[in-house]
Amino acid sequence: MTNQGSGYTNAANVTATVSGGGGNGAVLQAIVNSEPNVGIASFSGRVWIAAGRSVYYSAAGSYSDFTSVSAGSVTLTDSTLHGNIVQLLSANNFLYIFGDNSINVFSDVRVTSTGLTLFTNTNVSASVGSELKNAIFPYFRSVLFMNDYGVYALVGSTTSKLSDPLDGVFPNIDFSNPVYAGQVLLNNILCAVFNFRYNDTTFTNSYRFVQAVFFEKKWFISSQGNDLKYITSVPETGQIKLYGISNNQLVQLYSNTTSALTSRIQTALLPLTDPIRTKQALKFGIEATLSAGGELDVTVDSEIGSSSPYVLGNFVTWLNNSNVTIPWINNSSTVISWVFTNGYYLYKSDAQQWGKYLGLTMTSNSAGFVVNTFELEHELRVRF
Predict the structure, then answer these.
(1) 253, 231 contact by CB (below 8 A)
(2) Which band of pLDDT confidence, cut at 50, 70 and 90, is reported for residue 263?
(3) Which of 5, 195, 243, 264 is the most exposed place for a label (fewest CB within 10 A)?
(4) Where do you find CATH 2.60.120 in the chain?
(5) Cα(350)–Cα(135) distance, rounded to whole angstroms?
(6) pLDDT digits over 44-65, tens only?
(7) 263-383 in CATH: which number?
(8) What is the maximal distance between C-alpha atoms in the chain?
(9) What radius of gyration, in Å, describes the C-alpha atoms of the chain?
(10) pLDDT tens-place string over residues 149-165
(11) What pTM did the predictor assign?
């Protein structure tokens, strides 16, 4: 179409010349729509398009016929839909209609003997929805979505908040930039990923794009580049992969499992059964399964601060019968280090820290590894 025109007030007759392809008898019919199309979905053998507060659906078995008797439209007059429709999503044998603070579901689509289309329209959420149309996607048998104050899961007709651990993160998210979401397989675990622009006041003191990754009721934050604005999931060779646009280039995310990367894992400050007694940290340990050599920096934390970093490495020390370290020296008179390179390893050290609450922070620049658990030995001291 070279000129779509403007100022239409009614569906006038259209006269057009169609050339090429050897066809004839083509008929064009104008449909006036003053609202922009905000969502499109394929559901129950039809195409559904949202515009304003209305949803338009094509005829049964057609993707383009919006004029036959089985085609039509429905306008949502529910008071729970405060504004216009934000997005459509087809998943789990339902068509979800998202508003900024509401969710409706279309189901049970059928055609009567006279050719009219009937379906069920049910409001499943009268207070929670989303304006972030690109942060709504299916995840297993649920639908995950993000709004300005949390991440929610819609399971059946029940919405539940998943992002309580991220309540301190949301005030620093820049919602003037679009939020995108998708799924990806990480270590053969299907994870949900939300990409957003974040004001990082702790580390960089500037805005950067980060990802909140969710699986098995757990969250962690990743960075795949400071200019990663858009992401989307793509099923490829039987696996769900995640792609994004960074510096105007298409990149695959989470695709390299061998490169070293900066990681930071921090436990909560734990009361350790008795919150009113001071604890003295004695020892700590970190159980990890390594795929390569690695080094960890660990601090013991409390409500009053953090200890100096303890540098832990998976180095093997040789001792003689007198408990004296045996050095290994090569032909160049250089001391050789022995390193435990893969498998299970227990990092451990003495600890110096005290407080009513204790925890650990681990940072590393080593290649991929799995942290199995943290261990902390302490003694109870005075009350109050």
Answers:
(1) yes
(2) confident
(3) 5
(4) 263-383
(5) 45
(6) 999 999 999 999 999 998 998 9
(7) 2.60.120
(8) 101
(9) 29
(10) 999 999 988 999 999 99
(11) 0.77
